[in-house]
TrEMBL record:
Organism: Anaerobranca gottschalkii DSM 13577
Keyword Transport appears in the UniProt entry: no
Tree of life domain: Bacteria
Location, primary (coarse class): other
Protein name: Flagellar basal-body rod protein FlgG
InterPro entries according to UniProt: Flag_bb_rod_N, Flagellar_FlgE/F/G, Flg_bb/hook_C_dom, FlgE/F/G-like, LlgE_F_G-like_D1
Residue ranges constituting the Flagellar hook protein FlgE/F/G-like D1 domain according to the UniProt record: 101-164
Family listed: Belongs to the flagella basal body rod proteins family.
Organismal lineage: Bacteria, Bacillati, Bacillota, Clostridia, Eubacteriales
Chain ranges of the Flagellar basal-body/hook protein C-terminal domain: 207-251
Length: 257
């Protein structure tokens, strides 16, 4: 009976994690370049049960266990990992020369707090020192480092080359990853490489005056949320039922008259 409480508890905790993940997807449905994440659920190790009191058949070839196996008993579930969907979102035209989108593979490379990060969020501005930065103040990087602009007409070509008033300035540092699922997802729409990340591969096309929308499907997320809530409630009812049975065991079966 206590095992049943434990299994239901793991179910509730897992559904809670799913709910938090879905809620984060919904909140960021309008965040440029956001990639939805899905909680991957795995089951804990099984216990294999068999009957205890059956005989052991003794033969000249050795003892044969006659106890039939009852079968496996699950011990619960857990969130094994969070999987990020890297499908490209729809491109939205803004006509802002500092709004950029990558049509295809690749990530913008930004620098902040002494570290470099990857992002698909292409909403950029120019700070008071003339550098291209994102909404969190992280510097957009080119092949020569931080990109400083001084001029009026900014042109960014499909291959990432940057021109100001017709003069070549730099080329965007687009990082391509062969196995994007190896990236570590951080907050603020940022990713970092890991030991498993393999860099390289074909680069997508840079679209100036566009931003990439998130790849979150709100209708799909709402369906998942309802399913998660129902699964949570089902596990909650299991715990309530076990609690009632334990109460009867203590107050009725075990009472001394």
């Amino acid at each position: 009976m206590i095992r049943g409480l434990h299994i239901a508890k793991t179910g509730m905790l897992t559904q809670q994690r799913r709910q938090e993940n879905i809620a984060n997807n919904i909140v960021n449905a309008n965040t440029p370049g956001f990639k939805k994440a899905t909680a991957a659920i795995a089951k804990d190790r099984d216990l294999f049960l068999h009957r205890l009191n059956d005989e052991v058949l003794r033969t000249s070839f050795g003892n044969i266990d006659k106890k039939p196996k009852v079968g496996p008993l699950g011990t619960g579930v857990f969130v094994d990992e969070t999987l990020v969907n890297f499908n490209t979102g729809s491109l939205i035209e803004t006509n802002n020369p500092l709004d950029l989108a990558i049509q295809g593979s690749g990530f913008f490379t930004v620098e902040g707090n002494g570290q470099t990060f990857l992002t698909r969020d292409g909403v950029f501005t120019i700070d008071n020192q003339g550098y291209i930065v994102n909404s969190d103040g992280y510097y957009l990087l080119g092949h020569n480092g931080r990109i400083n602009l001084s001029g009026s007409e900014i042109t960014i070509k499909e291959n990432g080359e940057i021109y100001v008033d017709g003069n070549y300035i730099d080329t965007l540092q687009i990082t391509t990853v062969q196995n994007p699922h190896s990236l570590s997802k951080l907050g603020m729409n940022l990713f970092t490489v890991t030991d498993r990340t393999i860099l390289g591969g074909p680069q997508g096309v840079i679209r100036q005056g566009f931003i990439e929308g998130s790849n979150v499907d709100l209708a799909e997320e709402m369906v998942e949320l309802i399913s998660t809530l129902r699964a949570y409630e089902a596990n909650q009812k299991v715990i309530q039922t076990h609690d009632e049975l334990l109460g009867k065991a203590v107050n009725e079966i075990a009472s001394v008259r």
